[in-house]
Amino acid sequence: MCGGWRNVFSGAERGCPHPQQRAFDIRLWKFRTPSAVRNLLGAALSPHLLLPTLLNRSILAHSMKAAVLHGKEQILIEELDSAPLQSGEVRVAIQAALTCGTDLKVYKRGYHARMIVPPARFGHELSGIISEVAPDVRGWNFADRVVVANSAPCGECFYCQQQQENLCDDLLFLNGAYAESIVVPPRLVQKNMLRLRPQTSFADAALTEPLACVVQGIDDCAPKSGQHALVIGSGPIGLMFARLLKHQGLHVTVAGRGAARLKLARHFGVDDVVEVKDTPSMVEQLKRTRFDLTVEAVGKPETWEAAVQLVRKGGTVNFFGGCASGTAVQFDAGRLHYSNITVLASFHHIPRTIRRALELIETGIIRAADFVDGECPLTKLPDLFRSMSAGNRAVKTLVRVHQ
Ligand SMILES: [Zn+2]
Ligand SMILES: [Zn+2]
Q: Using alpha carbons only, how large is the chain's radius of gyration in Å?
């Protein structure tokens, strides 16, 4: 692993309920527009802000640092113009941005057909403080602490009408978490920007988006307390599945790789942890256990196939890990039919699961201290992604965007 960042959650710090809060220095307030100045004056009266802090900042800066994805394995840290806000928009000074398996996939492939097409600002898991509000925005104020999802549905298409907003024909994606600030478009402001409780830490809140996908995945499988679940994959998503399934009273087995990740699984009470050398030996080792539910959280054809091989008769398989378009998998049709197996594939989240995810975070069931195992300054992000791509097996890294 590159030495440019350090583990902030090791040792004694783990004992602190919100150790990550210490890692944040609220360096905000880069403005230039008249509404920014108005907001700034309003802020002087805000109880949560100290005027001396504000006076130390570069109040009328015209630019900000952001990571830009230019294509396959190409990230540059650039100084970009802070564009004036348009109608309905809000600017958020980012306080926590987290790395994600999806970002790693995008980095390796160079694009994601639906979510991000380069050149584009990169990163999508964030929380922060509103630093500027367009004059026509109601209900939000300077200095509000918020989490912003990475997409918002249109609310009007066929799928939105069926409450399947994750499949919206016009899903609007937001990227740009690895940056000092981000402009949140009107639709996201209205539908998927949530206010944080004062005691919620930014690092915890930034887990809302990936957790919302997991909540969606669990809702889709409708597991019952006492059932036996197998989670294939020990990345952040697999570990979140394990944590929530345990919380719902299931017996949980995690099969994955990476000593630190498997240790985390044991740490939050997973019943059985299996270190995977290769997929065939995993199947051999686990095939005698009767799993009511198998969750594939890797995104590879062989683990999709293993998930079907390992579920019991009458059980449910959730293909949660997305494979690249065009990937083919092989199943024994006889096994699917005569064993009465339910297969489903959950994708993304809907406004309801985003709200439920934040609730799980704010009640302390999911905490960054369990999933974030490193920290990295924004300027070192290209090195971090190179290291992740080489297989450093970090769970999630907190990107420090202010230096
Ligand atoms: Zn993510
Ligand atoms: Zn829609």
A: 21
- DSSP characters for 329-364? ----HHHHHHTT-EEE---S--HHHHHHHHHHHHTT
Strand, helix or coil for residue 266? helix
Percent of the chain with pLDDT over 70: 85
| Ligand that comes closest to the CA of residue 350 | 2
CA of 182 to the centre of ligand 1 (A): 17
Residue 309 token pair? 């091989």
Phi-psi region at 327: left, alpha or beta (left = phi > 0; alpha = psi -120 to 50): beta
Residues 348-373 have pLDDT tens digits of 999 999 999 999 999 999 999 999 98
In the predicted structure, residue 59 carries a pLDDT above the cut 60: no
Render pLDDT for 272-320 as a digit per residue (tens, 0 to 9). 999 999 999 999 999 999 999 999 999 999 999 999 999 999 999 999 9
Q: Torsions phi, psi of 354, nearest 5?
A: -65, -45
Q: Which ligand is nearest to the CA of 102?
A: 1
According to the model, what pLDDT value does residue 184 have? 98
pLDDT by residue (tens digit) across 165-201? 999 999 999 999 999 999 999 999 999 999 999 999 9
C-alpha 192 to ligand 2 mean position (Å): 14
- C-alpha distances out from residue 131 to 33, 60, 90, 338, 403, Å: 12, 12, 8, 58, 17
Q: What separation in Å is there between the alpha carbon of 350 and the centre of ligand 2?
A: 11
Look up residue 362 and give its two tokens: 């704010």
Distance 348 CA to ligand 2 centre (A): 14
Point out the ligand nearest to the CA of residue 168. 2
Domains and CATH numbers, the chain: 11-207+366-400 (3.90.180.10), 211-344 (3.40.50.720)
Residue 379 vs residue 32, higher pLDDT: 379
Q: Where are the beta strands (DSSP E) in 175-298?
A: 181-184, 193-195, 228-232, 251-256, 272-275, 291-296
Q: Tell me, in angstroms, the distance from the centre of ligand 2 to residue 167's CA.
A: 7
Query: Which numbered ligand comes closest to the C-alpha of 167?
Result: 2
State the distance from the centre of ligand 2 to the C-alpha of 355, rounded, in angstroms. 18
Please tell me the distance from the alpha carbon of residue 383 to that of residue 15, in angstroms, as a whole number: 30
Model pLDDT for residues 252-279, shown as the tens digit of each residue: 999 999 998 999 999 989 999 999 999 9
Question: Residue 210 C-alpha to ligand 1 middle, in angstroms?
Answer: 5
Are residues 83 and 103 in contact, defined by beta-carbon separation less than 8 angstroms?
Answer: no
